[in-house]
Amino acid sequence: MVEKIPKTKAKLFEIQASETAETAFGAKFMTLVMLGILTGLTKAVGKESMIKAIRETVSAKTIKTNLNAFEKGSTLAAEMLS
After folding, report:
1. How does 31-68 read in b/e, with b if 16+ C-beta sit within 10 Å?
2. What is the mean pLDDT of residues 29-36?
3. Dist. CA 8–CA 26, nearest whole Å
4. Domain boundaries, given as residue ranges, for the chain
5. Across the chain, which distance is largest between two alpha carbons, in Å?
6. Do the Cβ atoms of 69 and 24 come closer than 8 Å?
7. Is the pTM of this model over 0.90?
8. How far is residue 17's CA from residue 27's CA, in Å, rounded to a whole number?
9. Average pLDDT, the chain
């Protein structure tokens, strides 16, 4: 955890991704929560493109949880921007 944030002109967001992921999905899904947040905040890649990529790369066994974790991150990003 970062305790001291250096001064910057950039916009900073405090994100509780590990806690959110661990509580809702399990710690191993933190990267998908973060991916949803990053996609939502930067719009560098379209949300539908990311969902397609997730569907094509994760195992069928965990696809639902991966997509739910990504969606949770997307929702958190929308909340941060509002």
Report:
1. ebbbbbbbbbbeeeeeeeebbeebeeebeeeeeebbbb
2. 95
3. 33
4. 20-81
5. 44
6. yes
7. no
8. 9
9. 91
